[in-house]
Amino acid sequence: QVQLVESGGGSVQDGGSLRLSCAASAMRLSDYCMGWFRQVTGKERKGVAVINRYGFTNYDDSVKGRFTVTRDNGKNTLTLQMNSLKPEDTAMYYCAAVRANFCHLGRADFAYWGQGTQVTVSS
User: Fold this and answer.
1) What pLDDT, on a 0 to 100 scale, did the predictor assign at position 10?
2) Of 31, 11, 48, which Cα lies nearest the Cα of 98?
């Protein structure tokens, strides 16, 4: 059964950086389009970044220029480098996967989800 496990969350100051990782198992990462989503309690889960099977990326406007998503198919790992963090980036962050060449920032595209890792940015 496909499993996604996020790590790397934590608490940082405004302007700080964090690096999130997503370890995938029971799947070959190279066969999947991958994404990162985030959710604040009581609000809708929103797409942050996606990376397709060919390495092309797309970002939500709110994180462009600050976040970078990468994939290491050899290690079956997805990463989200987050720089210049702001208090409004505070959320639970989720890794997601779909067996497809392409995907979008919409939640409905994705079939598999991790349990999430909390990111808190204080001012």
Assistant:
1) 98
2) 31
Paired tokens of 15: 């302007």
Closest CA to 30 of 78, 67, 68, 69: 78
**73 three-state secondary structure:** coil
Q: Please tell me the least confidently modeled range out of 5-14, 40-49, 105-114.
A: 105-114
**Contact at 8 Å (CB) between 103 and 48?**
no
Q: Is 29 exposed, middle or buried (0-12, 13-18, 19+ CB in 10 A)?
A: buried
Asked if 78 contacts 51 with a C-beta cutoff of 8 angstroms, the reply is yes
- d(CA 29, CA 23) in angstroms, rounded, equals 9
